[in-house]
Amino acid sequence: MRRGDSNRQYLEVKTSPTLNFIEKLRNDFSSWLTRIFSLRPLRLCGERAMSQLIIPVFISNRGCPNRCVFCNEKKTAGDFPDRITESTFRGTALKYLNNKRRKVDRIQIAFYGGNFTGIDKSYQTKLLGFAKPFIEEGLIDSIRISTRPDYIDSERLDLLEKFHVGTVEIGAQSMVDEVLNLAGRGHSSSDVRNAVQILKDRGFETGVHLMVGLPGDSMEKFEYTVDEIIALHPDTVRIHPTIVFKDTALAESYRHSGYIPMTMADAIDYCKYALIRFEEAGIPVIRLGLQTTREMEEEGSIVAGPFHPAFRSLVEGSIFLDMASSLMELAKTKSREVTFTLSPKDVSNFRGLKNQNISMLKGLFNLAEISVKTDILQKRRSLVMAVCGKTYRTDKRSGVQGSRFKVQGLENSQP
Asked: 209 and 283: one domain?
């Protein structure tokens, strides 16, 4: 039996054909609602996204042997105490559970914000023990932790297995040793390879965290990092641009003109490239950009860098803009009216924040009217354009060329 299945019971009853039909309709509708409104979907390629609720508990930089140049844990973790008590833990967990409005496929407690497997074993055991009653009562399914790749070994994993840890996220950040050294990470790319392999061999769901725009990084180096992570094939990936927070070594370097942050345009391009490549490889990117905290919103907290609270929307919107532009270039039409059809779930990304994509397309191609239609049967992240009696199609995975996204393999046909 899989972890978390013990609290799911199924009752078989005898019913009439009419009642069976009604029940089937009800279940189908319920399933549809879950797909539409699920909390924090885990984006899986080629199948229905699994919805999950993550209950975050931040351990405030515990277990880290050194401080990375970009790290200001108080800003990124939010308002958590230096040491988690059982009362704090229970209060956090119950707040999320009591406010859960929809059914989800999986619920996990997540220990974030430090090197979990590097903290004192007795404190690890205490923290994991706080979660144990929630698992035994069927309130949560498992635990996830974040940690460093150089703190993974059999003994540490034995403890995690004992307490139902199902997911381990590795802070890789880059697979280029020069970049890791300049960031003050204190581990190598080989440590990442070894950690992911050990975790997969032991049956843990494995995630990898990457950063773009670290000191010494470049598009070529980031492409290499993406290639290396795809070769490791973790279960999930998180990516966010490097942000300069106050009270960090990076902020000091920036003030003395040493570190130059990425522009927002470059951050979007890097992440756009990575998102497409990972999805092509069947690796879900479960987050793009940093989760905003109240502390990050304080004046002066962010010194520089491409921060946006809806960063993923910027990236997804940019991809749709590229797709639409490529279709327009292929059509070579002089018509000033076009119609785009897409999945209902993609409309927001297609339009862009504040309808920026619509405005840009009108300006770029001298369009007077852009109609947007939806089709619930159309594949996510695909786009169909109709103009002058012809139909043109493409999708998000049509190709990546060089350092920029390019749509290839476009098809045109009579409707």
From this structure: yes
Are 243 and 206 contacting, i.e. CB atoms less than 8 angstroms apart? no
- Calculate the CA dihedral of residues 180, 251, 253, 250 and round it to 10 degrees: 0
Burial of 308 (C-beta count, 10 Å sphere; 0-12/13-18/19+): middle
Per residue in 326-357, pLDDT tens? 999 989 888 999 999 999 999 999 999 999 99
pTM: 0.81
- The Cα-based distances of 392 to 157, 339, 359, 409 in angstroms read 51, 10, 21, 11
Cβ-contact 104, 53 below 8 angstroms: yes
Do 50 and 68 fall into the same domain? yes
| CATH number assigned to the domain comprising residue 342 | 3.40.1260
**Residue 135 token pair:** 């698992």
Number of domains into which the chain is organized? 2
Same domain, 254 and 387: no
At which of 285, 309, 333 does a domain end? 309
pLDDT for the residue 412: 52
Q: Does residue 330 sit in the same domain as residue 194?
A: no
Query: Which residues in the chain show pLDDT less than 50?
Result: 1-41, 43-48, 76-78, 399-410, 414-415
The phi and psi torsions of 108 (rounded to 5 degrees) equal: -130, 140
162-to-1, 41, 125, 132, 198 alpha-carbon distances in Å: 16, 27, 10, 10, 17
* Domain annotation covers residue 267: yes
d(CA 53, CA 97): 9
Same domain for 141 and 266: yes
pLDDT in tens, 112-131: 878 999 999 999 999 999 99
Residue with tokens 């061999």: 201
Are 118 and 64 contacting, i.e. CB atoms less than 8 angstroms apart? yes
Q: Report the distance separating Cα 216 and Cα 154, nearest Å.
A: 33
Q: Give the residues across from 387 on adjacent strands.
A: 390
Given 255, 274, 309, the domain boundary residue is: 309
